[in-house]
């Protein structure tokens, strides 16, 4: 009985070490892949995203849109304004909570 338990410990230890090695190899593979050069398609995709970001900041909004986009946007904002009332619909709302805040933690 004791002998069986002693023989079982190395098997459990071996299983735990195997799990840790698999995790570490998986994480190190991701880290090494990031250090390498990007795939040409990935690099082109990232370059386009960065280019669009700079153009968007310069234009102050969407890039390369026509007058129909602005017309549709104004119509949509007017429709939302009628549905939900007043306020600036282009900004995120501010929430103000009054009273005490009670946090219940369930452990």
TrEMBL record:
Residues 1-18 form the signal peptide. Keywords: CF(0), Hydrogen ion transport, Ion transport, Membrane, Mitochondrion, Mitochondrion inner membrane, Signal, Transport. It is found in: Mitochondrion; Mitochondrion inner membrane. Its main location: mitochondrion. GO terms for molecular function: proton-transporting ATP synthase activity, rotational mechanism. Subunit F6, of the mitochondrial membrane ATP synthase complex (F(1)F(0) ATP synthase or Complex V) that produces ATP from ADP in the presence of a proton gradient across the membrane which is generated by electron transport complexes of the respiratory chain. ATP synthase complex consist of a soluble F(1) head domain - the catalytic core - and a membrane F(1) domain - the membrane proton channel. These two domains are linked by a central stalk rotating inside the F(1) region and a stationary peripheral stalk. Component of the ATP synthase complex composed at least of ATP5F1A/subunit alpha, ATP5F1B/subunit beta, ATP5MC1/subunit c (homooctomer), MT-ATP6/subunit a, MT-ATP8/subunit 8, ATP5ME/subunit e, ATP5MF/subunit f, ATP5MG/subunit g, ATP5MK/subunit k, ATP5MJ/subunit j, ATP5F1C/subunit gamma, ATP5F1D/subunit delta, ATP5F1E/subunit epsilon, ATP5PF/subunit F6, ATP5PB/subunit b, ATP5PD/subunit d, ATP5PO/subunit OSCP. Belongs to the eukaryotic ATPase subunit F6 family. This is ATP synthase-coupling factor 6, mitochondrial. It comes from Anas platyrhynchos platyrhynchos. The gene is ATP5PF.
